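Our platform keeps sequence and structure together, in a single record for each protein. Because each token names a local backbone shape, the row as a whole describes the fold. One such record is reproduced below, unchanged from the form in which we store it:
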Amino acid sequence: MGGGEGSTARELLRHNTIDKVIMCDIDEEVVDFCKSYLVANREAFHDPRLKVIINDARSVNQNYNL
């Protein structure tokens, strides 16, 4: 939860054994900014294994039973 800058996703997606990463952040503006300007994390945001959810983490936890 959180991690809109993409660093945690980047580190997880380095591993081929990871099938899917779900990143949830409440602030879409932060996520969009990081997608555009944080070069180090750009590849993670374009990885098809990453699903980005813009929402409150509490709501997502209840819907996904995490």
